[in-house]
Amino acid sequence: MTSGHPLLSVRDLTVGFRGRDGQPTPAVQGLSLNLSQGGSLAIVGESGSGKTVSMRALLRLLPGSAEVGGRAAFEGHDLLRLPADRLRAVRGRGIGMVFQNAMDALNPTRTLKSQLTEHLRWHRICSRSEATRRAVAALDRVGIPEPHRRIRMYPFQLSGGMRQRAMIAMSIVAGPRLLIADEPTTALDVTVQRQVLDLLNDLRDDGLSLIMITHDLGVARYLCDDVVVMRDGRVVESAPMAEFVTSASHPYSKQLLAAALDVDTSTDATQQSAVPDPEPEAPSPLMRANDLVKVFNGRGGETRAVDQVSVSIHRGQTVGVVGESGSGKSTLARLLVRLIEPTSGTVTFAGADLLGAGRRELHQLRRRVQMVFQNPHGSLLPHLSVAANVMEPLRAHRVGTPVQRRQRALEMLELVGVPAQRADHYPRQFSGGQQQRVAIARALALEPELLICDEPTSALDLSIQAQILDLLGDLQQRLGLSMLFVTHNLAVAQRLCDRIVVMAAGQVMEVAPAHQLFTSPQHPYTRALLDAVLPVHSPPQRAAQPLDPPQTEEIRR
Amino acid sequence: MVGYLVRRCIRLVVSLVVVSIIPFGLLQMVPGSFGELSQLASGSGLGGTDTAEAAAQLEERYGEGTPAWRQYLTFMQGAVTGDMGPSYKYPQLTVEQIIADAFPVSLTLAALATALTLVIAVPIGVLAALRKDTFADYGSMFTLTTIQALPGYLFALVLILIFAAGLGWLPTSGWSGPQNLIIPVIALAVQPTAMLARYVRSSMLEALREEYVVAAYAKGGTPGAVTIRHALRNSLIPVVTVVGPIFAALATGTVFIEALMGIPGLGMFFTVAARSRDVPLLMGTTLFFALIIMVLNLLVDLLYGVLDPRIRHERTTGRRRRRGKQEPEGEGHTTPATLAGGLEVRA
């Protein structure tokens, strides 16, 4: 096919969902895009922008309550008007789809073999034995070792990264010309994400066209030639990627780009922290943990979630704890406030023994250490207004009269940018970002000396994440707070932290002042983490240092 | 798998012992004994069978003078060795004989009623789910909800009135051939059918909403293939858990229908035993009911494993894990050792 005749051409796609009253609520309004043969396009947007809905609408995969309008020509045929049997011939065979969460998108009660071969039979592509052979080849193609053995496994027997590969194998086995990948790496750790993206890149080299739905501009830039930015169901901007990252024209695009943080590894980035890093041996850190160990006894035997970890936090300092899922970083945060009891080790706070403290003493100490959790929706009390939520710790510590508490709550809400008029609204009436502001206000109500933040921005959209980070940085300067900041996002850590602890498998890999960690990482694991980060504002280096094949990303049995 | 079965069987025995203690203890606490009640009822001793021999035999085994714990142990010894002794009420029959005669009757009714339930309820539930929010869905669910609120013996009465008393096609009561089965089986199946169909519907709706169903459509599956291969099977897994108790309830709880239609099933003897404080018969039937329910639950759990590989898998690895040979459950992240290029961080 010539470049004049695009593989996929979408014109004025609209999607609305009929509610109970029969009135459609618009979800996508006037999406138009072109994808040439062999091209790759990123659809970028925040949650609720309509990117997933519009792509599912193309293959008419939406529930019956959806009303879809416009045109979507794939190889010259309008998918929205094809008869059902011809549409089915396109699904899977012409267009493959990769879903965000392979755990959900693979049937848990069927083997990979069943799920990788059934559509070859449906499309009458080949015989059963040939289908199995092709399925094994597809698993091999996506880099799953021992495909002959693995093909007999069930999805839950594979690790997250493997499952996502299997999902991709399933979507390419019937030989589609176009692959629509819906946030295929969002649920994965950075290093695994990089491997899956490299796989998609290899598939592109085989001639597969790609539409990538993502909220992550780094991922989009790494993989795609063109970008379409969506917001509230509308296209805000569409441009070639290289042009977009340097000279986006729409304010929203600019805002997204500004919010996308890159890890800065250039040596001239000598952004020395405001507080010079004290020597690790400096006297009396505000909090000090020595040789903390936490062993969980589960069905899988002993798991050393935190293994001989020592951390100290000095006054006015922000310490980042960085690691991938399962590294023990959240467990560490909870150990430090004694939300869970360590197996061994010591924690002192302002000279007092936190672990030896009795009930009363602990209660007093907790007043000075507060916590902000990842998911504000889960950590705020839904039946209390936000003001009452902020008053809750004051009440628990019997601070002031009810009138004074309310006064304080209003002050706190104002401090984090929630207007007083909204103080009596309930948490569900707020957006995720505002809920997190309320959670921060609640944590600050007792004027703690130390704030422990466990992934406070991970559940939030990019632009909101930037606002919350600004807020935390600003509050720290104004209030002289000390912070422990747990995150999986290196760019976030770089932006906020003075010192960074890199954790993996429950152990500390490296501790270094932020500027030093990013410019000259000492530990190989830190370097691997940094290599896996996908920059937005500088050209991506495609597989500059190939990561090791995932041998240890073994099967879970 | 063998280990799993052994563990389950040990648990079953322990449960049976606990179950046996409860009714025995309750019977010790309630006023009145078999002898007293029989005398009140008939004016003579021991329910009309006042032969001295029988009385002496009972006295020897469960006499007034024997302490309760000894009575219990005697009974349990009998239960284990298969000699629970004669019934008070029917002294010429042993408890085993009564159960052996009556249980096949109840079992036949229960098996047929369960089969009928499945044959009707699963298709209705699946169709209602597939036609969600249409007249077929609303209509069938409304009817089923109404039916579920009505007791089964009421249906038996209506059926008797129409087909036995009115049209004379079927016998009103008794136990002499297949024609005696029709009304009780239908009456028994009505309520479970209503319940199960609603259960199948909601389970099917849930399965149809799963992402893997969307994924199957995205691969080009026809509605039939996707429904049967992906949604139906997974939606039936929770349904199995309900079918087990339904069958157990039917096999042990056909009391009303059996009494109404004069069917000599276990439920009838259970009622008689409870009313007359026939301790051996009551204990025997109770233990037998408990055994049936537990065995059925075990079968359901085994079936669960057949249908759901995740559960089968967990069971077979459960032992290995406990022996500590299990690798720690990782969340699938690459370990630092790999990333560090083979550098030994932690084996």
How would you characterize this protein structure?
The complex is a heterodimer of chains A (557) and B (347). In chain A, 49% of the residues are buried. Among the domains of chain A are: 264-296 and 304-368 and 448-532, P-loop containing nucleotide triphosphate hydrolases (Rossmann fold); 385-446, no CATH class. Chain A is of the alpha/beta class. A six-stranded mixed beta sheet of chain A has the order 6-7-8-3-9-10, with helices on both faces. A six-stranded mixed beta sheet of chain A has the order 16-17-18-13-19-20, with helices on both faces. Mean pLDDT of chain A is 85; it is low at 269-276 and 543-557. The two termini of chain A are 47 Å apart. Chain A contains 21 helices and 20 strands. Helix content of chain A is 36%, strand content 24%. Chain B has 347 residues and is an all-alpha fold. Chain B has a domain at 96-297: MetI-like (MetI-like fold, Orthogonal Bundle), CATH 1.10.3720.10. In chain B, helix 1 (2-29) runs antiparallel to helix 13 (279-307) and helix 5 (95-130) runs parallel beside helix 13. Chains A and B meet through helix 2, helix 4, helix 7, strand 12 and helix 21 of A and helix 9, helix 10, helix 14 and helix 15 of B.
Count of DSSP strands of chain B = 0
Q: Which second-level CATH architecture of the domain at 264-296 and 304-368 and 448-532 in chain A applies?
A: 3-Layer(aba) Sandwich
Instruction: Specify the CATH homologous superfamily of the domain at 96-297 in chain B.
Output: MetI-like
Q: Helix fraction of chain B? A: over 70%
Low-confidence stretches of chain A: 269-276, 543-557
Count of beta strands of chain A: 20
The CATH architecture of the domain at 96-297 in chain B = Orthogonal Bundle
Q: What do we call the CATH homologous superfamily of the domain at 264-296 and 304-368 and 448-532 in chain A?
A: P-loop containing nucleotide triphosphate hydrolases
CATH domain class name of the domain at 96-297 in chain B: Mainly Alpha
Structural class of chain B: mainly alpha
- Average pLDDT of chain B works out at 75
Radius of gyration of chain B: 27 Å
Which fold does the CATH topology of the domain at 96-297 in chain B refer to? MetI-like fold
